[in-house]
Amino acid sequence: MQWRRHITGLAFSLVFVVSYFTNKFVLSVLKFTYPTLFQGWQTFIGAVLLLLSGKLGWVEMSRITRSAALSWLPGSFLFVGNIYAGSRALSRLDIPFFFTLQNCSHVVSYMIFRVIHRQKTQWLKFISVCLVLFSAINLPLYDPQFDHSGYLWAVCHLSCVGAYSVFQVQYKSINLSDLEQQCINYLFSVLLLAIASHPTGDLPGALEFPSLQSHTFHCGCCLSALLGFLLLLATVKLKSGLSLEHFGVWIFLSKVTAMFLSPFIFSVSVNAPSLLCVVISHVGEALLIYSERDSQV
CA separation (Å) from 44 to 17, 39, 48? Predict the structure, then answer.
């Protein structure tokens, strides 16, 4: 049975890497920087495919009650902040730098859990969090193509990711499965992003987008939406068969793979100090995963 877990993990890594590369291609190479429309399209397709899969019995989903949906709305707000700010940041930052900043979501969740539970300090976890934070703070100082807006959006993104992780743990009593949570997230995102598309200027700007009729653009958007849904299924499948620690290992390996391959696909500007920040951040993340062997938050 162990080989099946490895195959699931490899499938997850493949979809993870291709999904991030596709999003980066549409956002940076094609320069479709209209996140309300881009993420609205992805979440709309995700919601349709998820509901259709549940209807056909391909995935297990129970009927979501109104009270459970309302209780999950704060998580959906954080999810929208995560994907919107993440798109903004990814369009402006190289993938290795994006993941280095994203790692700081561990710092956010660590600090929130410390405040909520007042746990004793685990020194290995504390050191790993400090390494991650130290790398993120120093990265903007050495980034050869520093983008102020990109870093601000990355801070919003990592804050939402960290807070969402805490919310998921704290509100397990709502009794929603991961797929049901994501279904609420998708539907809420479609509604909120559709409403926001005109006030943010994304809808008028997209209508004048030069590549709107491009076959490459259409393929990229369709592929990004499909990959987002497949990544959700792969994530749920992987989490169901592994401990939190081992699931974290696969995410770590997927991110490292994406960072290693990204210079072969995209133009990446890096120097020795910024590369050191990237390495230290992921050493810190590896230590954090290792420290969670003996304790689960």
Answer: 22, 8, 6
One-letter identity of residue 273: P
One-letter amino acid for residue 172 of the chain: K
Q: How far apart are CA 95 and CA 98, in angstroms?
A: 5
pLDDT in tens, 74-84: 999 999 999 99
Rounded CA-CA distance 60/90 in Å is 32
**68: which 2 tokens?**
């459970």
**Integer Cα distance of 279 and 256 in angstroms:** 10
What pTM does this model have? 0.92
Average pLDDT, the chain: 87
Short-list 77, 99, 79, CA closest to 90: 99
3-class SS of residue 22: helix
Contact between 274 and 97 (Cβ < 8 Å): yes
Q: How far apart are CA 16 and CA 230, in angstroms?
A: 9
Residue 160: its H or E element: helix 148-170
Q: Which of 79, 88, 82 is nearest to 35 (CA)?
A: 88
Nearest C-alpha neighbor of 47 from the set 64, 33, 32: 64
- Count of Cβ atoms closer than 10 Å to residue 116 Cβ: 12
